[in-house]
Amino acid sequence: MIFLCLIFMVFLIFFIYKNLSSRSVFYLCALTIGWIMAYISFTLYLSKFNYYSIVNQFIGLGPGTWSRLVLGNFDTHSLIRLFNLGIILFYFSFFSFSISFTSNFKIKTKLRYVYLGLGIAGIIQFLFYDPSINLYLQELFSKTEILTKKYQQLSKIGDIGFQTLNYAFLILSFVLFVSYYIRYYKLRSIRDHTLYIMISLLPITFLQLFVFYWAPSNLVKITFSKNFINYSQPPVNLFLLEYRFFPLLAIAAIGIMLYNIYKYKTNEARYSNINIITKKKMDTASLGIRAFTHAIKNHLLAIRSEAEYLQEKFADDEDALYSLKLITESCEQSFQSINQANEKLKHITLNIKAVPIQLPIEKAIQRFNSMLSHVEFQLEKPDSNILVYIDEDQTNEAVYNILKNSVEALGSKGGRISIMLNHVDQWGTITIRDNGPGIAAENVDEIFTPFFSTKPSITNWGIGLSFCHKVITAHGGEIEVTSELGKFTQFNILLPLAKRG
Known about the structure:
501 residues; alpha+beta; Heat Shock Protein 90; 2 domains; five-stranded mixed beta sheet
């Protein structure tokens, strides 16, 4: 079962590789290597002293394999060092991974001293449990009974201190994950990914504490003979369950990890399919709208031509001229609407550069009439500039369409539209939330589909949000919508952060 866990953990690294920064991947790999290192060295250490009755209950090696390990000429001190290094590397990498995963980009560049401090603490712990150093100190302090007691006290204090430190690393790691999950709960993609990481790390944490809750530990003791060293049997007595249940627990842990990978992949595939369907519908609309608008334009041209003819014929009839003028103006407005729809669905060329994220937002808000007193705009800007790689004009147009959609949803009764700017890991985020009537659950997944609209107005083509989707995804970003009927609608936009330094 342990081998199955190890294979699956390797699979886990490759599975989440694309979603993490290189530093996070490094610490995740180190975490896994530490666990494997501890497992292998622990098995070899037990085989060195033929503890088959203990190992067979939770590792399950065959007699032939065990015999080959027992006959292997392994250096005991090297095995102890390898074991301690694996245990320390696991705790250090676990905490470092949680820091790296939950830290924003700007903070990550300033964490080198934190990692350096953790590394120094790990080296001190490794030296504290080094077998050669311990044998030297035991021999040095064994000259008198008082010195022997001082060594024992020092050893006990060190054990308690380092054990507490290692457990604190695990606790603080999950505190960071939970706080990160709560902080960005409204950003669905980040929230789901964080939850997946937390749940997937629980089984390996359980296995670590299940088998190695006592480690690292000093496993060497001096005797009256300098040529003979007493190597301790590890305190592997389980206080909750017998070891024969370990394979079942290992299968349960693997099942939990597989289930969460399945759930994560299912959600990811669902959102991916929605995007693919939207893009296909958008491509179809781009082709079909040309034929559609061509036919409509021909009819509008005929109507406008007849209206102009009637304007000349009834030049003296004011009432007729007024009605004909309305007809021609309506034709012109229809031409403009068709051209706008055609423009929004055609190929977009982006001029991408590093731009402060608030610039397109502020310009989009300014485009609304200052006399729009029934709608309150609330913009929460960051303390410092957040640079994102965007085409400012196209992003401005996309944000304007979302704001316009919110304004129309609020209607004449008015309401509030809040815009919050932030940065999460490699993303600059824009959150647009209104307290309007919301969107029905069955319509949320269709909201970015071309020509889909819940508005009854004949002037609404259902193109605006499709255009937004096309612009944001063209930037390599993400756009998602959450809504609760009768309460709110919220759009979350993630744009690539311009990494500096």
